[in-house]
Amino acid sequence: MENRNLLRNLPQTPKPSLPVLVLSKLIMIVLPIAQIAIGVVYMKDCPAEHYIPIYLVVTGSFSLALAMLSCLPCSQESDEGDQGPLYKLCTTWNSLVSFFLFCWFIAGNVWIYSIYAPDYDPKAGVSHCNKTLYLFAFWTTTLCYILLGLMLVGGCCMLLCLCVLGKSVQEGADEV
């Protein structure tokens, strides 16, 4: 038995129910809404790097738009696997927005980490940044790296398990 057959024999994951989908979308839009709100409230409160609140507002807006667009029927492939022009348009748009968010994330990293740790005292002049604004931007960006690391470790563990399982299945087939 080849290793490719092992992947084909894995059971298909069931599609989540509507309440699970709705709940997951609601959870996914909490952070973008918070980013927009904090960015707008503290728009003029970071002279040390005035792009940080703009970064939060733009990231939150585009993430929210991406989450909302994923709810549209055109963004889901039909059960027959047909890919009509509307599906291709939605896929292209989602890819462009995701690429923009990736590039914007890199720019935000430069703006946020380049002034680490700013002076939080407004009396400091142009070198200060509002503590709530900066720490929110800092920790949401750092959270992305933490989640990326966890996904990489989880993916490596899954691949390791598949390799070990594949060898045991292959050895079992050789014995027969």
Describe what you observe in this structure.
Helices cover 70% and strands 0% of the residues. The mean pLDDT is 85. It is built from five helices and no strands. It is mainly α and 176 residues long. The chain has one domain. It is extended. The relative contact order is 0.12. Helix 2 runs antiparallel to helix 3, helix 3 packs antiparallel against helix 4 and helix 4 packs across helix 5.
Shape: extended
Structural class: mainly alpha
Average per-residue pLDDT, rounded, comes to 85
Low-confidence parts: none
Main sheet attributes: strand count, strand direction, barrel closure? none
Integer tally of domains: 1
Number of helices: 5
Share in β-strands:
under 5%
**Could you state the order of secondary-structure elements as H and E?**
HHHHH
Helix content: over 70%
